[in-house]
Write a structure and sequence with these properties.
Blueprint lengths: L14 E4 L4 E4 L10 E3 L9 E9 L8 E5 L19 E5 L2 E4 L2 E4 L14 E6 L5 E5 L2 E7 L7 E5 L4 E6 L23 H31 L23 E4 L4 E4 L10 E7 L5 E9 L8 E5 L23 E5 L2 E4 L2 E4 L15 E6 L5 E5 L2 E7 L7 E5 L4 E7 L22 H7 L5 H10 L4 E5 L4 E3 L4 E3 L11 E7 L5 E9 L8 E5 L19 E5 L2 E4 L2 E4 L14 E6 L5 E5 L2 E7 L7 E5 L4 E6 L33 E3 L4 E3 L11 E3 L10 E8 L7 E11 L13 E5 L17 E7 L2 E4 L23 E6 L5 E5 L2 E7 L7 E6 L3 E6 L15 H6 L8 E2 L2 E5 L3 E4 L4 E4 L7 E4 L7 E10 L8 E5 L24 E5 L2 E4 L2 E4 L14 E6 L5 E5 L2 E7 L7 E5 L4 E6 L2 E2 L15 H12 L17 E4 L4 E4 L7 E3 L10 E8 L8 E5 L19 E5 ...
Parallel strand pairs: 45-46
Antiparallel strand pairs: 1-2, 2-13, 3-12, 4-9, 4-13, 5-6, 5-12, 6-7, 7-8, 9-10, 10-11, 14-15, 15-26, 16-25, 17-22, 17-26, 18-19, 18-25, 19-20, 20-21, 22-23, 23-24, 27-30, 28-29, 29-40, 30-39, 31-36, 31-40, 32-33, 32-39, 33-34, 34-35, 36-37, 37-38, 41-42, 42-53, 43-52, 44-49, 44-53, 45-47, ...
C-alpha cells in the first residue's frame, strides 16, 4: 500500500507541522483565526482522495475548515492569510459554497463544513476527466467544478474554529461518469460505516415517505382549498415570506440563506390563520453562533398574502392594540414594544438545536407558549380572533420545521391531546399519592444521592463511587476538566464540593455553577465559561452567564482557595442562585434561573481534585432564622439582616457581596441590646466607587409611633444608630431612613429620628459619615444618662441625641459605597465617665483594625530573587536583572509601602526601579509571568520610576521627575503611595517627591525591580487600618502640625469638586471618584451631567484628556434644566428635546433647536489639555468659558435649577472635571501686554503699551507647535527672539481670544490687519525702540520675504534695500517685470522697500514664495511661507496701489489702491516679529 500523503513543509505563518508532516496545527487558535493555510507536498493524482480529519476545534470564532485544490506551486508561493485569498486557478469549498479564485461559483453545495465536529473527515478528489468532488465523512458531495487542470495541489485552510488536522488513509476512488458516485473498495467499507449509512438512509426515506403521504392525503382532501382559508390542511409556511427565506419539505421547513452574512429578513408566516386551541409548534433545526439574538415566535393579524415583510417582525406596527405579539428572548413584545420583561422559564436566545417552541391561542383569547412541551403560562389575555402564526429566523436561528403528531419523529411525551397534559413525573406522582407523608417523601429524595456523571471533560475522570472528580495529569494540563452532576438539582438542594488536591503550576482555580445542558448532550468544552447558553458560573470572584461576565466583584475569590476549602451553589425555589464558600452564602448571583439544572464544576488551573460533600448543611438552616440569639458577652451581628447583606467570620463581619450590582437592602443589627457605656465599634474594610454615599448607622428605640415622614434630604451615605425594635420584629427595609419608628441614626452629619430630621435633633454633628474611608473606625454608645455618643477612631464626638431608652440594638446600613465592616476589639464596656477619654482610657480603645502588620513581599518574583525573613526582605543572588518583586497585597488608599536599601554592588550600573502595577499578583502566580525588568510589564498597566523618569507601560511620561534613584546608597529609604485622589507619590528618605503619575486605579500592587547596583532591600513600612495620615517614616517635629496635615489630607477627596451623575450615556465609564468620564465605544451615547445642580456664578469646567481623530466633531457642553436621575439620555446632547441648552461647535442649541451661530470658538478645534466650562450668572444667563476666557452670553432665561452637561462626542473620548477656580489656571491675558483692540475697542491705544501680546491661550496648539518646528529648522539663534510674547493666529486660537481682525495704531492712527492664519514669533526689541517711542507713535505693517533671506535680515537688524545684498533674491520686493505702466509707482527706479498694512497682500506668493517643509516629527510634507511684522515711521513712506495686477479685492478692509507702502529712508522701519505660515 502506498505511503500516506504529507503536507508541504512551507505553510502559513501560524502553522506547525508534526507526525512526519502529516499533522498540522494553528498556533494561538484562541487569539488568531487565520494564517493557517497548508498544501499537499505532491500534486493530486487522478482519482486520489486527499482526506484529513479534524482533530481540534475552538469555539472562539465563526467559520471552520476550508478545502480545495490550487495550481499554485507551494515551493515558490507567497501564502495568503486564508484559502479564499488564492488566485490563479484555485477551487475551494468554504462552508457550503464553492469558490473559484475567491469568487463564489456555487452558493449551496453539499454539507456545511462550518458544522463539522472533531473527528469528522473531509476530502477532495480530481477525477481523470477533470471533475472536482468533495467528500464529507466518506460521502461524495457531488460534482463541484469541471475543467480542473491536471496538475493541482490539495489546499487546506485551518480557519476559524478549526485548529488542528491530520491526514487520514484513503484509497483511490474513481468517480463514475454516469452516476458521479466513487467506486469504493468493499474491504475498506467497515460494518460500522455500512450500518451508519443504512440507518441514515432509512431515516431519511421514512421521513420523506411520511411527508409525501401526508401531502398527497391533504391534496386529495383539499384540492380546492384556499391557501389563506379555513381549510383542514396541515399547517405549512406561506409561500410569501422574507427576502432571505427558502422554503422546502412541502413548505414545512424554512431556512434563512447566507446565515453567516445576514442576520435578519427571515420572517415566515403560516399559510392560514390559527384555529382556537390549535398548537403551532416548530423545531429548531440549525443555529449559528455568529450573531446575538435568536428566534422569535408569535402571532399577527396581518395577512401574509398582502403583507410587505419587514426585516424583523418586531418592526411591525398595527392599529390593533394586539396586532402582533412576539416572544423575544424571555420577554413578550406587542407591536414592537415590550409588555412583559420576564415571561416563562426559558430564554429563546438560549435554546439549542432540537428544542421545540409552540404556541396556542385559547378559545377565550389567551395566548400560551410551550417550550419543549412545557406550558409557560399566559403571555397575553386578549388576542384577536383571526391570527396567523409567525416565526422570525433572526440572528442565530437559521432553520426551523413545523412539527405535529403526524410526524414520525414527534416526541412521545406529547402524545396527549395538548401539551399541558404531559406525563407526570414519578416525583410529581409520588407527591400526589395519598397516604405518603412528607417525611417518607424526604427519605425517598434523600436516597438518591448527588453524584458526578462519568461523562466528563477529556482531562478529567470520576472516581470514588462517582463522588470524586480529578484531573489525573494536573501537572501536564490545566483545562478540559469539566464535570457535571449525575442528575438535576432539586430546589434548595446544595451542590457543594471540597477541594482535595491542588497544584501550584498554573494560574486560576476551581469554577462552579449550574447548566441546563445534560452530560449526555453536552459537547464538553475546554472550560465551562466557553458555553454560550444556559450556564451560570462563579469564576474567580465574578459571576458569568453564558460566557459573559455579569458581576465583576461578587464574593470571595475562588482562585485563593486552599485544600480543604468548600465551595457550593444552590438554586432557590424563586429561581435565584446563591454561591457559598466554606458554608458562607455570598449573596444572590443570578435570578430567573429555570428548573432542571445540573451542577457543574470546572477543575481548572490549580484545582486538581474535588469531592462532593454532605448535603445536610444548607446555606441557611432554620435554626439560624430563630428569633432568639444566644446572648453572649461578645457583640456580633444578628443572623437576621437585609436581603443583600451577608454575615461572615462567626458573626463579626458584615458584607454586601454584590456591592457593584446593588447599593441598598443591607441593614444589619447587633446580636443583642447594648448595655450602658458599652461601645459598639466597627472598622470599614471595603468601599466601592460605583455609588454615591457610604455607611449609615443608628439605634432603634421606643415603640411609640410617629406620623410617617420622609426626610427632605436623604443622605446617600453610611448610616449608624440604635433601635428599640428587635431583629425578629424588624421589617428590613431598603434603607435605614425608611424605618419610621423607634430608631435614632446618624446619616452624613445629620442626626435623624424615625427617618426624619426634626428641629430637636442636631443637623450638623461633628462626625460626617459621608467622608469616611477604608480603615476608619466608627463607634456608638448609649450612656446611663440616656445620651447617645458617636466615636471616630476612638475619639468621642459628643452627644448626638438624648432620651434614648435602654435595651437598644445597634443598627448599621451598608449603603452605597460602604461594602464591608467588621466589629473591632474596641467594642466593650467603658468607664461611666467616658467623656474623659484621655491617656490610658484612649489607649484601651485601640482595636485590631489599628494594629500594625508589616508589609511583605509576594512569593511571586523574578527568577534571581530570594525572599527572606518571612517575606520582609528580598535579595538578588545573581546577574543584574530578573529581580522584580511585588507586594503581597494591593495597596490601600494613602498606604505607604517603603523599603530600605541593605546591599549594593558597584560592579553593576543602573539601580532600583519602583512603581505600581494593575497586574493581579498572588503567591501562586507563575514565575513565567514575571519579566526580566519591571519596565517590561506591559501586559497590564504599570507605572515605574526609573532613574529620574516616570514610565507608563514602558513609555516615558515624565522626565526629570526627581533626584535620580541611580544614586541610592545603603540605608536610603524609598517608598511609594497611592493617594486617595488617584495619584502616585514617591518618597525618598521620608521626603515626598511629588506626583509621579495620576489616574491610578484601585487594587494596585507595589512593584520593585532590584536592578543593577541595588541587590537587597527590606520592608520597613506596615499595613495599618487606621485613618490615613503622615507616613510612619516621615519625620514630624510638631504633633499639632501633623494633625493639620492629616486633616488636610482627609479633605483631599473632592469635597469642593463636583462629580458626574451615576445616570449617563450607555457608552460612558466613570472613574476617579466619578470626576473622569471616558467613552468606551462608538462616537455617541456619551452624555454626562453633574450629580448636583450647578450653583450660580460658579464655573464648572472639564479638561479634555483624550481625542481620537477617527471621528468628526467633538465635545459638546451646556446645561440640563431638569433632574437627570431617571432620564434616558439620547445619542447626542442636541437630541435632548426637554429643557436643555448646549453648545456644539460654534452654535448654540435650545431643546435641539439652533438659536445662535458663530458664537465663541469652534469647540471642534480644541486640543488635548484645553479647558471648557459653563457658568450661569445672577441674571440667569449662560456663559461659555474656554481656557478660562469668558466667551460672552450664549443663552438667557436658564432655569433656576440646572445641571452642567458634557457630551463626550466624536473626537473627544475622555474628560476630567477640574477645579472651579479660574485663577488657578495658567495666567491668561495680562493687561498692559495686549494689543490695543484686545483691551478696549477705541481708536487710539493707551500710552505706554507694547505690542507684545498675551501668552498663548491654547497652550498646546498643534499649529503653533508645527510652526515652532519650522522656525527650529531654519537654524535661527534663540537670542534673536523674545520667547515670552509669541502668539498663534490660527482659527482656533483667534476665536478663543476673540480678537478683532483689524486694529489701529500710531500717530496719526492708521489701520492694520492682524496676521490671521500665521504664527508670530516676537523679536528681541532694539535698544532705540523705547527712545523713539515706536510702540506708541509708529505704524504697524508687514513685509513678505523668502526663506533664504530671513537669516541675513535678522543679522542686519533691519530690512535690506535692494543694493544692500549681493543676491537680488535676498529679500522679496516688487520686481520690475510684474509692473504695468498703469500700476508703476511714482518712485519706481530708486532703491526702496515695500510693505503693506495687511499680511494678505505682503504674504502673497509674489512676495512670500512657498517653500517645501518636511515636519521632522510627523514626516509630513507642507508648504511654508515667511514674512515680517514691522514698525514704520509715520510720514516716511508713500501709499500706493497693489502691483500684482489683480482685479479681485485682496482685503475687504482696505482698498486695492492703498495696499502697498514704500520708503527709501534708511532707519524708517524697525523689525518687530517673524511670521510663519504652514499649509
Amino acid at each position: 500500500m502506498a505511503a500516506l500523503p504529507q503536507f508541504h513543509s512551507r505553510t502559513g505563518t501560524l502553522v506547525t507541522l508534526s507526525n512526519d508532516n502529516r499533522t498540522a496545527k494553528r498556533n494561538h487558535p484562541t487569539q488568531e483565526f487565520n494564517n493557517g493555510v497548508i498544501l499537499g507536498a505532491d500534486p493530486l493524482k487522478d482519482g486520489q482522495i486527499f482526506e484529513v480529519r479534524i482533530d481540534k476545534k475552538v469555539n472562539s470564532w465563526s467559520g471552520s475548515i476550508e478545502i480545495g485544490v490550487t495550481t499554485c506551486n507551494p515551493n515558490n508561493l507567497n501564502f495568503p492569510i486564508s484559502a479564499t485569498g488564492f488566485r490563479e486557478g484555485t477551487w475551494v469549498m468554504s462552508g457550503s459554497s464553492i469558490l473559484k479564485d475567491g469568487h463564489s461559483m456555487i452558493e449551496e453545495y453539499g454539507c456545511d463544513l462550518d458544522q463539522l465536529s472533531e473527528n469528522d473527515q473531509v476530502g477532495v478528489m480530481r477525477t481523470s476527466q477533470g471533475v472536482l468532488h468533495f467528500f464529507v465523512n466518506g460521502i461524495d458531495q457531488g460534482c463541484a467544478a469541471t475543467g480542473i487542470p491536471p496538475r493541482v495541489y490539495p489546499v487546506i485552510d485551518m480557519y476559524g474554529k478549526c485548529s488542528q488536522i491530520s491526514i487520514v488513509d484513503s484509497t483511490r476512488r474513481e468517480s463514475n461518469s454516469a452516476t458521479s458516485v466513487p467506486v469504493v473498495s468493499t474491504n475498506l467499507m467497515t460494518n460500522e460505516l455500512a450500518n451508519e449509512l443504512a440507518n441514515e438512509f432509512l431515516a431519511e426515506l421514512s421521513n420523506q415517505i411520511a411527508n409525501d403521504l401526508a401531502a398527497s392525503r391533504e391534496l386529495a382532501c383539499n384540492s380546492n382549498s384556499d391557501d389563506d382559508g379555513n381549510s383542514n390542511d396541515r399547517l405549512r409556511f406561506h409561500e410569501t415570506c422574507g427576502t432571505l427565506v427558502r422554503l422546502s419539505n412541502n413548505r414545512r421547513t424554512a431556512e434563512r440563506r447566507r446565515p453567516m452574512d445576514e442576520f435578519n429578513n427571515g420572517v415566515v408566516m403560516t399559510n392560514r390563520p390559527l384555529r382556537d386551541d390549535e398548537l403551532f409548534e416548530i423545531r429548531l433545526d440549525r443555529l449559528v453562533d455568529k450573531w446575538s439574538g435568536s428566534i422569535e415566535v408569535g402571532i399577527t393579524t396581518h395577512n401574509p398574502s398582502n403583507l410587505e415583510f419587514p426585516a424583523t417582525m418586531t418592526n411591525m406596527r398595527s392599529g390593533h392594540q394586539s396586532g402582533t405579539i412576539m416572544m423575544s428572548g424571555c420577554g413578550i413584545l406587542t407591536n414592537g414594544k415590550g409588555t412583559r420583561r420576564e415571561y416563562g422559564h426559558f430564554n429563546l436566545d438560549e435554546l439549542t438545536e432540537g428544542d421545540r417552541i409552540g404556541l396556542i391561542r385559547k378559545a377565550g383569547g389567551c395566548l400560551h407558549y410551550y417550550i419543549n412541551g412545557l406550558d409557560q403560562g399566559v403571555a397575553s389575555t386578549t388576542t384577536p380572533t383571526q391570527v396567523w402564526g409567525v416565526v422570525d429566523l433572526y440572528g442565530m436561528a437559521v432553520k426551523v420545521t413545523i412539527i405535529d403528531r403526524q410526524d414520525p419523529s414527534y416526541p412521545n411525551e406529547l402524545s396527549a391531546p395538548f401539551p399541558e397534559t404531559r406525563a407526570i413525573t414519578a416525583d410529581v406522582a409520588l407527591r400526589h399519592f395519598q397516604g405518603v407523608s412528607e417525611d417518607e417523601l424526604a427519605f425517598e429524595d434523600e436516597s438518591e444521592k448527588l453524584m458526578f456523571n462519568p461523562q466528563c471533560g477529556a482531562h478529567a475522570s470520576v472516581i470514588n463511587g462517582q463522588r470524586t472528580a480529578h484531573r489525573p495529569n494536573a501537572l501536564d494540563d490545566f483545562n478540559n476538566g469539566v464535570v457535571l452532576t449525575s442528575r438535576t438539582l432539586r430546589p434548595s438542594e446544595v451542590f457543594e464540593v471540597r477541594l482535595d488536591k491542588m497544584v501550584d503550576k498554573w494560574a486560576g482555580s476551581i469554577e462552579i455553577g449550574l447548566t441546563t445542558h445534560s452530560p449526555g448532550d453536552l459537547d464538553f468544552p475546554s472550560t465551562m465559561t466557553n458555553i454560550r447558553s444556559g450556564t451560570w458560573m462563579m469564576t474567580g470572584n465574578g459571576v458569568m452567564h453564558n460566557g459573559t461576565t455579569v458581576i465583576d466583584d461578587y464574593g470571595q475569590n475562588l482562585d485563593r482557595l486552599k485544600v480543604g476549602d468548600r465551595v457550593g451553589v444552590v438554586r432557590k425555589p424563586d429561581g435565584t442562585v446563591h454561591f457559598s464558600v466554606n458554608g458562607i452564602d455570598q449573596g444572590v448571583a443570578a435570578s430567573n434561573v429555570p428548573d432542571n439544572v445540573y451542577g457543574v464544576i470546572d477543575l481548572y488551573g490549580q484545582a486538581a481534585q474535588a469531592t462532593i460533600v454532605s448535603q445536610s448543611d444548607f446555606l441557611s438552616s432554620p435554626e439560624m432564622e430563630s428569633s432568639v440569639f444566644t446572648e453572649t458577652d461578645d457583640l456580633r451581628f444578628h443572623q437576621l439582616h437585609g436581603n443583600n447583606a451577608t454575615i461572615l467570620n462567626n458573626g463579626k463581619t458584615a458584607v454586601r457581596p454584590n456591592a457593584n450590582g446593588d447599593f441598598n437592602d443591607a441593614i444589619i443589627v447587633s446580636s443583642r441590646p447594648l448595655r450602658d457605656h458599652e461601645l459598639f465599634e466597627v472598622v470599614i474594610e471595603r468601599m466601592v466607587e460605583r455609588w454615591s454615599g457610604s455607611i449609615e448607622a443608628g439605634q432603634m428605640g421606643s415603640s411609640v409611633n410617629c406620623p410617617q415622614k420622609r426626610p427632605s434630604r436623604k443622605s446617600p451615605g453610611f448610616r449608624v444608630g440604635v433601635t428599640l425594635i428587635k431583629p425578629e420584629d424588624l421589617e428590613f427595609t431598603h434603607t435605614m431612613t425608611d424605618i419610621n419608628y423607634s430608631t435614632w441614626m446618624l446619616s452624613g452629619s445629620a442626626i435623624m429620628k424615625d427617618g426624619c430630621a426634626i428641629s430637636t435633633i442636631r443637623i450638623a454633628y461633628p462626625l460626617d459619615l459621608d467622608t469616611v474611608t477604608v480603615g476608619t473606625r466608627i463607634g456608638m454608645m448609649r450612656c446611663s444618662d440616656g445620651t447617645l455618643h458617636y466615636f471616630l477612631n476612638g475619639e468621642d464626638q459628643g452627644v448626638a441625641c438624648t432620651d434614648i431608652p435602654p435595651d437598644v440594638y445597634a443598627v448599621i446600613d451598608l449603603y452605597g459605597q460602604c461594602a464591608q465592616v467588621t466589629i473591632t476589639g474596641g467594642s466593650s464596656l467603658l468607664p461611666s465617665d467616658n467623656h474623659l477619654l484621655t491617656g490610658e482610657t484612649e489607649f484601651s480603645l485601640s482595636s485590631p483594625g489599628n494594629s500594625e502588620v508589616t508589609h511583605r513581599f509576594s512569593n511571586c518574583c523574578g527568577k534571581n530573587i530570594v525572599i527572606k525573613n518571612n517575606g520582609s526582605s528580598a535579595s538578588r543572588i545573581r546577574n543584574f536583572n530578573h529581580g522584580v518583586v511585588f507586594s503581597s497585597e494591593p495597596l490601600k488608599h494613602d498606604e505607604l509601602f517603603e523599603v530600605k536599601v541593605e546591599q549594593i554592588s558597584k560592579q553593576w550600573s543602573g539601580s532600583m526601579h519602583i512603581g505600581l502595577t494593575t497586574m493581579a499578583i498572588s503567591d501562586c502566580t507563575p514565575v513565567s509571568q514575571v519579566p526580566s525588568l519591571a519596565e517590561e510589564l506591559t501586559s497590564k498597566i504599570t507605572w515605574i520610576v526609573s532613574g529620574s523618569e516616570v514610565k507608563k507601560c514602558g513609555v516615558t511620561i515624565k522626565e526629570n521627575y526627581a533626584p535620580s534613584l541611580e544614586r541610592l546608597e545603603i540605608g536610603n529609604r524609598v517608598g511609594l503611595r497611592r493617594c486617595s485622589d488617584g495619584t502616585m507619590h514617591i518618597y525618598l528618605n521620608g521626603e515626598d517627591l511629588g506626583i509621579a503619575a495620576s489616574n491610578i486605579p484601585k487594587n494596585v500592587f507595589a512593584v520593585i525591580d532590584l536592578y543593577g547596583a541595588v541587590e537587597t532591600v527590606s520592608i520597613i513600612s506596615s499595613a495599618a487600618c487606621d485613618s490615613p495620615g503622615t507616613p510612619r517614616s516621615l519625620p514630624t517635629d510638631d504633633s499639632s502640625g501633623h494633625q493639620v496635615d492629616q486633616d488636610r489630607d482627609m479633605c483631599l477627596p473632592t469635597i469642593n469638586l463636583p462629580s458626574f451623575h451615576g445616570n449617563h450615556g450607555k457608552n460612558i465609564c466613570l472613574s476617579g471618584g466619578n470626576i473622569t468620564a471616558s467613552r468606551q465605544s462608538s462616537y455617541n451615547q456619551g452624555i454626562v451631567v453633574t450629580s448636583k445642580a450647578l450653583p450660580r456664578k460658579k464655573i464648572f469646567q472639564v479638561r479634555i484628556d483624550k481625542l481620537n481623530p477617527k471621528w468628526s466633531s467633538s465635545i459638546i457642553v451646556g446645561v440640563l434644566g431638569f433632574v437627570p436621575d431617571r432620564y434616558n439620555f439620547p445619542g447626542t446632547a442636541i437630541s435632548i428635546k426637554k429643557s436643555a441648552v448646549v453648545i456644539q461647535g460654534d452654535s448654540v442649541f435650545t431643546s435641539g433647536n439652533k438659536i445662535k451661530e458663530r458664537y465663541g470658538p469652534n469647540l471642534d478645534n480644541l486640543q488635548v489639555g484645553h479647558f471648557v466650562g459653563v457658568v450661569v450668572d445672577d441674571d440667569n444667563c449662560l456663559h461659555l468659558y474656554v481656557n478660562g476666557v469668558d466667551q460672552g452670553v450664549a443663552a438667557r432665561d436658564i432655569p433656576n435649577s440646572c445641571y452642567a452637561l458634557v457630551d463626550v462626542y466624536g473626537q473627544c473620548e475622555q474628560v476630567t472635571i477640574v477645579g472651579d477656580d479660574v485663577n488657578n489656571l495658567p495666567p491668561l491675558n495680562s493687561g498692559d501686554d495686549r494689543e490695543k483692540a484686545d483691551i478696549d475697542d477705541v481708536v487710539k491705544e493707551k500710552i505706554g503699551t507694547k505690542l507684545c501680546n498675551e501668552s498663548n491661550i491654547l497652550r498646546n496648539c498643534e499649529y503653533q507647535n508645527l510652526c515652532s518646528r519650522l522656525r527650529t529648522s531654519l537654524g535661527l539663534p534663540d537670542g534673536y527672539f523674545d520667547g515670552q510674547c509669541n502668539m498663534c493666529f490660527c482659527e482656533t486660537c483667534h476665536k478663543i481670544r476673540g480678537d478683532n481682525l483689524y486694529h489701529c495704531r500710531g500717530d496719526p492712527p492708521r489701520d492694520y490687519a492682524i496676521p490671521y492664519g500665521w504664527c508670530r514669533f516676537v523679536l528681541t526689541p532694539q535698544n532705540k525702540a523705547h527712545s523713539l517711542n515706536v510702540y506708541e507713535k509708529w505704524h504697524a505693517a508687514y513685509h513678505g520675504a523668502c526663506m533664504e533671506s530671513v537669516r541675513r535680515i535678522l543679522d542686519n537688524g533691519d530690512l535690506l534695500l535692494p543694493g544692500d545684498s549681493t543676491s537680488s533674491s535676498s529679500i522679496l520686493i516688487p520686481q520690475p517685470q510684474v509692473f504695468t505702466e498703469k500700476s508703476k509707482p511714482d518712485s519706481f527706479g530708486g532703491c526702496q522697500i515695500s510693505f503693506s498694512p495687511t499680511v494678505r497682500y505682503a504674504g502673497s506668493p509674489e512676495f512670500s514664495p512657498k517653500q517645501r517643509f518636511v515636519d521632522p516629527k510627523t514626516k509630513k510634507i507642507y508648504q511654508a511661507r515667511v514674512a515680517f511684522q514691522l514698525w514704520v515711521k509715520p510720514g516716511s513712506y508713500k501709499v500706493g496701489p497693489e502691483t500684482i495686477a489683480t482685479s479681485d479685492r485682496i482685503d475687504p478692509h482696505f482698498n486695492n489702491n492703498e495696499l502697498e507702502w514704500a520708503t527709501k529712508e534708511r532707519g524708517s522701519t524697525m523689525l518687530y516679529a517673524l511670521l510663519l505660515k504652514v499649509e
